[in-house]
Write a structure and sequence with these properties.
401 residues, globular, alpha+beta, three-stranded antiparallel β-sheet
């Protein structure tokens, strides 16, 4: 699609079409996009066509106040408006088309505008990506892409961890958990600024417990495109995160009173609400209460937050099991090497598939990383006869030997 520019109808011309003609036109545009991708055209369903009609018509030229301009300047503004709208319509159209069949890969392509910091995204967008240290040696989410129902139970040497989703919405997914990472990263950046002002002798206020991001800010941070489906998924993700609770029982009776693993049960996020919506009833801004376990782990009196920085390419990892492996490597290996047997690995991610199929999945992932490596870490399998061992080794920075 990058090499082909669509000649789309103007908003006004589209508005003059009948409902039937609008649907037919959008179907033609979809067919043109599919043809440009070398694929057979497909029929869009009624729901997809309805979303596309609303999106195509949503931008008002009155927002530009063209009556205040004249001559070449007005014409320039009109062309810019058309270009912006056309590009956005193409992006949304691509989201409504069936996914292109790609060769197996551990990651997806970055969004088209990934390198551009949009004007409405605050500076936290470029802040280091953080994750909670205490939840990185297990999968605190379902490995199923749709979440699913039920209870996940991890019986480790030092603790028993239980994860339970809501009765109506189910368990949080690996992609839902991106919002938790966004929340932790936001709080870490706010805490960094607080410490910097405090060091200057100022008297700043502690970061608040409530986070009010724009939906577009979350999607941009998580390196997702801004299509209609992404906004709908975001709202469902918030419901699953709020309903998913983690309960940890410490089996060693740690005497450290600060260790929240000893007794606590907590949700992945606290209370949330949709603060505002767009004219198309799309989620616009949300309010998320930062739960105590996150706040205490980041804004700690001793200045030692229990978080680790992640590689931004983590968000591009396309399979939940691959995301789990990266997070485990980040905690266990750090700057060195860590290894786990496949039996232990299967237990730590609560995989429900038979061991034979799990082994095949890990072998496939390790094989794919030989051509497209996992962020930061090299993977290698060792057959010890009684079990297969996965080695995770920190890769030296480029240029280092």
């Amino acid at each position: 699609m990058a090499s082909k520019k669509l000649n789309l109808k103007s908003r006004e011309a589209f508005a003059e079409l009948s409902l039937h003609d609008k649907n037919a036109y959008l179907q033609e545009v979809a067919a043109e996009i599919m043809a440009a991708r070398g694929e057979e055209p497909v029929e869009l369903d009624k729901d997809a066509l309805a979303r596309l009609r609303r999106y195509y018509s949503r931008r008002s030229m009155a927002d530009l106040r063209l009556n205040e301009f004249g001559g070449p300047l007005r014409a320039s503004f009109e062309r810019i408006a058309d270009s912006i709208r056309s590009d956005e319509v193409i992006v949304v159209m691509k989201h409504e088309l069936p996914a292109t069949r790609r060769k197996p890969s551990i990651s997806r392509p970055a969004p088209a505008d990934d390198a551009q910091l949009m004007f409405f995204v605050p500076s936290v967008h470029d802040a280091p990506i953080k994750d909670d240290f205490n939840l990185m040696d297990i999968a605190p989410f379902s490995l199923a892409k749709s979440g699913g129902t039920g209870v996940i139970r991890y019986e480790l040497k030092d603790s028993i961890i239980t994860i339970e989703g809501g009765a109506e919405v189910g368990l949080a997914t690996a992609y839902d958990y991106d919002i938790v990472i966004n929340m932790i990263s936001h709080l870490a950046e706010a805490t960094r600024r607080y410490r910097a002002e405090e060091a200057k002798g100022l008297k700043p206020s502690l970061p608040p417990y409530v986070y009010r991001p724009a939906a577009a800010e979350i999607l941009k941070f998580c390196r997702r495109e801004l299509g209609g489906k992404q906004y709908e998924d975001l709202e469902r993700a918030l419901a699953r995160l709020q309903a998913t609770r983690i309960r940890i029982t410490n089996l060693k009776g740690d005497s450290d009173a600060r260790d929240r693993r000893a007794t606590e049960s907590f949700p992945l996020i606290g209370r949330y609400k949709v603060v505002s919506r767009t004219n198309q009833d799309r989620i616009d801004q949300v309010e998320i209460e930062i739960p105590g376990w996150v706040y205490e782990g980041v804004v700690r009196p001793d200045g030692k937050p229990t978080i680790l920085t992640l590689n931004p390419d983590y968000f591009l990892l396309s399979r939940p099991i691959t995301r789990f492996i990266y997070r485990l490597a980040r905690k266990a290996a750090g700057d060195t090497t860590a290894f786990y047997s496949l039996r232990e690995l299967r237990k730590r991610c609560a995989a429900k598939v038979p061991m034979r199929k799990f082994k095949k999945t890990i072998e496939e992932i390790v094989d794919l990383t030989q051509t497209k490596p996992l962020p930061d870490y090299d993977l290698r399998l060792e057959d010890r006869g009684h079990d297969i061992i996965l080695h995770m080794t920190k890769r030296p920075p480029e240029g280092c030997h």
